[in-house]
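## retry 2 of 3
previous attempt timed out at serialization; input unchanged, resubmitting
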Amino acid sequence: MLLDGKIWVANTGEGERISILPQMANRHGLIAGATGTGKTITLKVLAETFSEMGVPVFLADVKGDLAGMIAPGNDSEDMQDRIERFGLADAGFEYQKYPATFWDIYGINGIQLRTTISEMGPLLMARILRLNDLQTDILSIVFKIADDKKLLLTDTKDLKAMLNYVDENVKEFQADYGRISTASIGAIMRALVALELEGGDRFFGEPALSIHDLMSVGEGGKGMINILDSQTLINNGRLYSTFLLWLIAELFEDLPEVGDLEKPKMVFFFDEAHLLFDGATKALLEKIEQVVKLIRSKGIGIYFVTQNPKDVPDAVLAQLGNKIQHALRAYTPTEQKAVRAAAGSFRENPAFDTYDTLIGLGTGQAVVSFLDETGTPGMAQKVNILPPKSRMGSITPEEREAAIKASLLYGKYANAYDPDSAYEFLLRRGAEIEAEAAKAAQEAEAAKAAAAEAKAAEKEAERAAREAEREAKAKENAKKRAIKSVGSSAAGTVGRELGKQAGKKFGTFGKTFGGNVGSSIARGIFATIASWFGK
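## retry succeeded, writing output
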């Protein structure tokens, strides 16, 4: 409850009001306690007060009982007793509703909440997929290749396409990015398919959440209370905690430095905070510590809600200046040790023993320590937490649906769209490669056919040449035979004529000799002529 410019949270047994100073609210905080001790009521009281201050709030509704903030509280005998006991009537206590926007990763009990795989990054994506160190390194390489090639990873099909692309071209990439194990790529692919089967793929896509849409105000200038429905999401602890961590990291990276403010720009409640640290790698823990340590300079306050302070690493716990510790159980030596550690984290109050007080607290009671004006932790105080002004408990499905559709953001995020990203680019690239391969095959086939045709033409030319040569030789031989025949006939005629003439003068001997000599001379002459024609 907002009173005198302070965040009134509780009263001591003597009626002293215990408050958080608004300028110290972004120094983070812790709400811890066993199940059923009143953590949810404390969270509601703080969230309502921040909203009254005009400070937007983000919280996760794990059990569904925070949704009642959209409706005024119900009066009852018990509430009247509390109002009188705390002196709330004199402080202006009134039942009231608060502006709220319902979100849901699965898009069932709230506005569909999405981000892109590129924005999630390889480190957080590896946590969602439960990858080991080697597989995380391979996933980081895949993200680096996508970044270098300016390929946006929007949804799971983009990441699957990218994994296949790297696997198919692993030899090409290993020279620049190091050894890439195809077995690890297969393991990442299987983890991605498992995430899709769980419905986690609905979280990745466009339109992606703009964190600035969380930092709005509602009716009367009250800060918007953004409620992430986590009744189903909590069953996937890795996805739940990694999403919340991503959101904090986005706030850290996107918001400017503002230094110390009169009040926070936004307050973030991290319920079931132990899930964030369970199984976290060293690199992830370092990232969480860095964000928690530095984000207060961006005006963001983070409040971890968990059962036991030991759920939070010491390096993070040391950054939580405002502490609200509800009852802890101490039945075993281990539990007793945890309670002593919790008690030891408070500045001692000589009026009571913190350890004994913690194990003896009733529902709605707590030990608190808030920062003073100088940033020094206050002395431990045993207090009773104020009741909330809004309805305690859940709401009807009809009330939820009406609130969802009344939000100005409903139209912005209701319908998903699939942008031109890695999947589409690689699909086109595959089609182009297939087309180029088909074209190359056609060209090769055409070249083969042309070569065969040329070879056939060459053979035909050779055959025609041989045929022409044979015809030429036949003509030549026929010519020679004709000349020879003419020569022989002429030689015979010449020989007979010479023989006849020689016979007239020399008788029979002269006739024979003259005929032979004439024939020989004639044959020699015509043989010479025939050889000329042969050339």
